[in-house]
Amino acid sequence: MIIAVDGPAASGKGTIARALARHYGLPHLDTGLIYRAVGASVLREEGDPASEGDALAGCSFDDFLLEDPWLKSEEVGKAASIVSAHPLVRKALLLRQKKFAAQPGGAVLDGRDIGTVIAPEAEVKLYVKATPMIRAQRRQLEQRKGGVFESLDKVLADIRARDERDTKRAEAPLRPADDAVTLDTSFLSIEAAVQKAVGIVEAAK
Ligand code: C5P
To answer: Which of 13, 39, 85, 157 could form a disulfide with 7 if both were Cys (CB 3.0 to 4.6 A apart)?
Structure first.
């Protein structure tokens, strides 16, 4: 069984994908981390994420970079959303993700284009969403735990800018697959959201 989980930043898709993977004993891939590793490599080499050549060079990152806590920062998240708009970058990273999805026994993948591009054949497609303000509040809380203190206005502006880039790009824009089930986590606790997600998977199995 392949479970595709898509949605915007801080919607809860990562938490839900991890919980589903645990629940069903499936391997999990956070595809955002791959784009973050590309963005981080470009920044580290003092390249320009908007340059397709620099971004493409960043695709040959070392896998140990995936473990770097710096990848979680907004700086890298922003670079990731810029490099991910380049068609050649998406092409370079396609096979790795498709292979992960196609492994025997199935997998859970989360990202922006899992249900639409990476695994359109997925048995279960979830589109996780929440209002921009609620996502900004969650992101701010997460940042504070990591010792980063930004105003809610700034966090909200970053979230909106990322939504804008991810939904408006020409290549694999963020959108629900036609056969995706939407899960709005705005007013749900993590436990309630996971419970709903399991219910959706059970209904689709
Ligand atoms: O999910 P996360 O915030 O870690 O993703 C970082 C960025 O990587 C996103 O804003 C998006 O632009 C890009 N991304 C993507 N396709 C995916 C996963 C992430 O374009 N499947």
So the answer is: 13
The alpha carbon of 31 is separated from its chain's Cα centroid by a whole number of angstroms, namely 6
Atom of ligand 1 nearest to the CA of 114: 21
Ligand 1 binding pocket (C-beta < 6 A) is: 9, 31-32, 35-36, 77, 80-81, 84, 111-113, 162, 166
Residues 6+ apart with CB under 8 A from 101: 2, 29, 107, 109, 114, 118, 119, 122
Q: What was the ipTM of the complex prediction?
A: 0.98
Q: Where are the domains of the chain?
A: 2-204
Neighbours of 86 (CB within 10 A): 22
Q: Are 1 and 106 in contact (CB under 8 A)?
A: yes
122 is in an annotated binding site: no
Fold for domain 2-204?
Answer: Rossmann fold (3.40.50)
